[in-house]
Amino acid sequence: MNYNAWFAAHDNPDERYPLTEVIYYSSSGGLLDVEHDMTALRQRSPDEWKQLFDRRWMRTDWPYGSGVWGKKELVCPVVDDENIVSMFEGGTNLFWAERLGQDLGVEDFWIKLCGNSHTGSFKDLGMTVLISIVRQMIANGKPIRAVACASTGDTSAALAGYGAAAGIPTMVFLPRGKVSTAQLVQPIAHGALVLALDTDFDGCMRIVREVTADETIYLANSLNSLRIEGQKTVGIEIAQQFDWTVPDWIIIPGGNLGNTAALGKGLLMMYELGMITRLPRIVCAQARNANPLYRSFCTGFKHYEPIVARPTAASAIQIGDPVSVHRAIRVLKRFNGLVEEASEQELADAAARADRTGLYTCPHTGVALAVAIKLINQGTIQKSDRVVIISTAHGLKFTRFKVEYHEGTLRDVISAHANPPVEIPATMDAVRRVLDERVPHGAEVRKLQ
């Protein structure tokens, strides 16, 4: 069966463009969304879709073993298989955080580890779709000479990695001194042209919009809704991993807000196809130092104003003028959603608490965890609820954040859960003293469990 998808204007669904056209805005200046032929998709029953996706799940049949391309019909059916650029992204662990949940008072507590991906973040899910479309366009004769993005770190890594795999030149615009060393070195290692600008992310975004006015340089930021098509598979995967049911709550960090929009889009698509029978509530978690959506939420979404984002340890969401804000607001309204904020103290302590139970969380996941803690303490999230936290990146990208927390030098934070090394003489007497002071005996260990 043939399936199709196209760009469409939100305010005028009849305004349509092929996905292989270099276009980002509607005639009225709004962002374009990808729409699918839902009539064709409904020709398969809900059970047939589930069975098809389960047969493909994490197999080696190209390209369907990918967590994204295993849902190709719902993501981007117009790309020829030979032009797909995939590193078998997705299929990430839905981790039952048993000890952390018990500590927080909600035992059905899960972490979707999107950072367990090729370049270490959820951005791989969207980038595989975007670079595959670019490869398809080049095969069709489009004169694209490079793909560019503004980034606070993870987008640049994904773009550079997938561009390198495809043999397509990439350019990344980073705010100088505002991304972690691990994030900076990834695009450098992959051969991207890296431009470090004396500005913040929003300033980089303004520049890259001007650069990509040249149609031979394709825009890879999430205002390009192709990225959202790949990222929406997170919601589909969560349902699949719960045997095609959905949790009560999904809490997701929000910066540029494309991921919030994508999460809702994937879940709504399943709902419209009858694959799930209800929708979860979505919570967007923002750092207090970069919280324009939270401020809008406090007005009932009646008003929205960009802000100048202040420095936050959650650097990837240090964004004051998110391009997908209106998409995210539409999703949150549809899902009876909430927006909450977390201070630097709250996000750092939440990440440290999670790490003490075996996780290794990035600061952005710390924002989502801190918000979860607030909602649990308020009684908004009930003890019996099933909760999923979206972990957006691997903690190893943020080693300096961890080191400074445990050294007690993290800005605006008093490290309540610091665990620095104990420096002692190289004698058995010194070791025994520390063991007696710090290591519990059998009965105490059983209590901890």
Short structural description:
The protein contains 18 helices and 13 strands. With 449 residues, it is of the alpha/beta class. It has a domain at 94-120 and 228-407: Rossmann fold, CATH 3.40.50.1100.
Keywords summarizing the entry:
single chain; 449 residues; alpha/beta; Rossmann fold; four-stranded parallel beta sheet; 18 helices; 13 strands; 39% helix; globular
Structural summary, described in words:
With 449 residues, the protein is an alpha/beta fold. The termini are far apart. The protein is built from 18 helices and 13 strands. The strands form three sheets. A six-stranded mixed sheet has the order 4-5-13-10-11-12, with helices on both faces. Strands 8-7-6-9 form a four-stranded parallel sheet, with helices on both faces. A three-stranded antiparallel sheet has the order 2-1-3, with no helix packed on it. It has a domain at 94-120 and 228-407: 3-Layer(aba) Sandwich (Rossmann fold), CATH 3.40.50.1100. The mean pLDDT is 94.
Strand order of the largest sheet: 4-5-13-10-11-12
SS element count, helices: 18
Name the beta content range: 5-15%
Number of strands: 13
**First-residue to last-residue Cα separation:** 53 Å
Q: What CATH architecture of the domain at 94-120 and 228-407 would you give? A: 3-Layer(aba) Sandwich
Helix percentage range: 25-40%
From the 3D structure, determine the CATH topology of the domain at 94-120 and 228-407.
Rossmann fold
Rg from alpha-carbon coordinates: 22 Å
The structural class is: alpha/beta
Q: Give the rounded overall mean pLDDT.
A: 94
Question: Uncertain segments of ≥5 residues (pLDDT<50)?
Answer: none
CATH class type of the domain at 94-120 and 228-407: Alpha Beta
Main beta-sheet annotation: 6 strands, mixed
Shape: globular
